[in-house]
Amino acid sequence: MNISADGYVVDAxxxxxxxxxxxxxxxxxxxxxxxxxxxxYGRNLWETMQYWAAPPPESSPAELEYAEAWQNTPRxxxxxxxxxxxxxxxxxxxxxxxxxxxxxxxxxxTLAASMLDRIDEFRPVVYPVAIGGGVPFFPAGAxxxxxxxxxxxxxxxxxxxxxxxxx
Length: 167
What we know:
Distance between the termini: 23 Å
């Protein structure tokens, strides 16, 4: 996920406009989506990601490439409030998420917080902005022993930090 330098995925008003990716970061996300065996979303992020089901015709080639990769990736939405979802499987709680070979991307900080014991790697792309509050990337009170296995600075300013869980 994209996060602020002070550790939030959205600001206190629910906005993430501060993390609009430049082309170099967007290219990273295209590659990550192409490598994903399955995406798992919570309700809020699922509703945001619906944009990629039918991006506008004036979208850039990179946006269309991402949309194609996103559309071709199996998806699960975890929600106790949605009645049904179009283009994904719906499960009521995290126990309904099947194990899957390959890379599974967890989308949504709240969902990820409920699945911490099932996550092997964390890959925040940190933007050089402090937003002062909002939804944290890591839940309050969580203790995780992590090992930094990769950093990748982007020319546009953000930095990818790839952490593996120490077991």
